[in-house]
UniProtKB/TrEMBL annotation:
Residues 10-308 form the Enoyl reductase (ER) domain. CDD domains: MDR_like_2 (cd05289). It holds the Pfam family ADH_N. Transmembrane segments: none annotated. InterPro entries: ADH-like_N, Chloroplast_QOR, ER, GroES-like_sf, NAD(P)-bd_dom_sf, Quin_OxRdtase/zeta-crystal_CS. This is Quinone oxidoreductase.
């Protein structure tokens, strides 16, 4: 089977398509034909040798990225009864999603409901769970509150906009003008260009800032938060500096690292099946085009999600 791997940290060219054998199954495992793997900024950061992801794998190269997939079950181990051959499954992985086939513990992945497309299931897991945990577990967002979401048109942001609306919040979304109609259509109440300082300064203060950009952007947006407001800064690499700046202004601030929770994922995919949540897939690449997909995610201007096709 084909798999995209890196032998060393570096630019997108480090991603090379290799041929490897799919391992034998343990009793609790299943073999899955990957149809689509989500491409996330963390894949590219880890490939480049940055952040917690690179720290975790630096002594075990070669490494294959890919933290979320959708596929079909090809074979199950002798003790597996929660999934069957032919089932459509999706969910979060520890890595190696950029592979034609995967061997995973059967309880890692969830069934895809009939009403959910392969593509939406593939793009939901990582961004969806991050958006949900950022808004609720860390942000403690309540109905009636105002939430400011930066990078609102991106993978996490476009799902956070919809989830925050569903929770009864007023959503203020930041994006380039080209994405404003997209965000209004997803339910955002106010949509602003993050480069327009005058418009930003005139914004009514918010209860919660979901900072999806971090660094200088995250720090600049602290001025829009109510004195008793809350800040969740999602990019881990700049979290310390944003939290320190927020706390120096008397705000309550936290970083986060998403954790896998299949109950939350089940609720999210039900929301997709019930048309309360939509996963925007803006582009699909072949496995052989993995480097192009990484160059796209590294532009920082991807709308919704991009996928690799297995
Ligand atoms: N801690 C965790 O557990 C966790 C989990 C998931 C993601 N993350 C991190 O969270 C961040 C967002 O992830 P993602 O998947 O949503 O990324 P993404 O899809 O690559 O985000 C792209 C979006 O960022 C927007 N953007 C770029 N610069 C901006 C700025 N200065 N102000 C406002 N928006 C800006 C772009 O908007 P326009 O095109 O409209 O300009 C684009 O729509 C990444 O840093 C990622 O690594 C962390």
């Amino acid at each position: 089977m084909k798999q995209l791997v890196i032998q060393a940290f570096g630019d997108a060219e480090q991603l090379v398509l290799t041929e490897s054998t799919s391992p034998a199954l343990a009793a609790n495992e299943m073999r899955v034909k990957m149809h689509y793997a989500g491409v996330n900024p963390v894949d590219a950061k880890t490939r480049a040798g940055l952040g917690w992801g690179a720290e975790a794998i630096k002594d075990s190269l070669p490494w294959s990225p890919g933290l979320e997939v959708m596929g079909t079950v090809l074979e199950v181990g002798s003790e597996v009864n929660i999934h069957h051959v032919g089932d459509r499954v999706f969910g979060l992985l520890a890595g190696a999603g950029y592979s034609e086939q995967l061997v995973v513990a059967a309880n890692t992945l969830l069934r895809v409901p009939k009403a959910v497309s392969d593509e939406m299931a593939a793009g939901l897991s990582l961004a969806g769970i991050t958006a949900w945990q950022g808004l609720t577990e860390h942000g403690l967002l309540k109905a009636g509150e105002r939430v400011l979401i930066s990078a609102a048109a991106g993978g996490v942001g476009h799902l956070a906009v919809q989830l925050a609306k569903d929770l009864g919040a007023t959503v203020v979304a930041l994006a380039s003008p080209v994405n404003h109609d997209f965000l209004h259509n997803l339910g955002a109440d106010e949509v602003l260009d993050y480069r327009d300082e005058q418009q930003l300064a005139a914004l009514a203060p918010v209860d919660l800032l979901l900072d999806l950009v971090g660094g200088a952007s995250g720090q600049a947006l602290l001025a829009q938060v109510k004195p008793e407001g809350r800040v969740v800064t999602v990019p881990t690499i700049t979290a310390k500096e944003v939290i320190a700046a927020a706390e120096s202004q008397g705000l309550s601030a936290t970083g986060m690292l998403k954790h896998n929770d299949n109950q939350q994922l089940a609720s999210l995919v039900t929301a997709v099946a019930e048309r309360r949540l939509r996963v925007e897939v803006s582009q699909i690449y072949s496995l052989a085009e993995g480097a192009d997909a990484h160059r796209q995610i590294e532009t920082g201007h991807t709308r919704g999600k991009i996928l690799l096709q297995g």
